[in-house]
Design brief:
Elements: E1 4-10, E2 13-19, E3 46-49, H1 63-77, E4 84-88, H2 96-116, E5 124-128, H3 141-147, E6 150-154
Helix pairs in contact: 1-2
Length: 155
């Protein structure tokens, strides 16, 4: 755990105040050893893009997620498949309509990265489920992180 420091000008002197990192290790019990590791991929299988890749309220694709999806695309290209569903989900914070829109944006962002990495766009359908089908309790932070995920279903 590395704590970053920001310098602030205080009465003619610089003083340092700690800045909390975006994610602390203890906030993410679901982290694996490698943020970009994709498990085995097979037809009829599912790849879950963990929720810690998405900031609360965001569909931004960061560098770690790009690496993860690059690895996922490489694995998918090794098998025969007829179609892929990219299903976006959110936690239950916020308005239902906004969550449905956000889950759609997340699914579309993942689809775009898969296409960028060589998967045919015509074989991918992005779908939005909002806060439906939670895989963990939304009553605590780790549960909400797990619920804001994208699932890639390979048919």
């Amino acid at each position: 755990f590395i704590c970053l420091f920001a310098a602030f000008f205080c009465a003619g002197l610089f003083c340092f105040a700690p800045v909390q990192p975006l994610f602390a290790e203890n906030d993410h019990e679901i982290l694996s050893d490698s943020l970009t590791q994709v498990g085995s991929v097979k037809k009829g299988g599912k790849i879950t893009v963990p929720g810690f890749y998405f900031e609360d309220g965001s569909s931004f694709v960061n560098d770690n997620l790009k690496k993860y999806l690059k690895n996922a695309a490489a694995s998918i290209k090794k098998i025969k498949y007829s179609s892929i569903f990219v299903d976006g989900y959110t936690d239950n914070l916020g308005e239902r309509k906004a969550n449905n829109g956000l889950s759609r944006l997340r699914a579309q962002a993942v689809k775009k990265e898969l296409v960028r990495n060589g998967i045919s766009a015509s074989k991918i359908k992005a779908r939005a489920y909002g806060s439906s089908n939670p895989i963990a309790s939304n009553n605590h932070k780790n549960g909400r992180i797990q619920n804001r995920r994208v699932e890639i279903i390979i048919n």
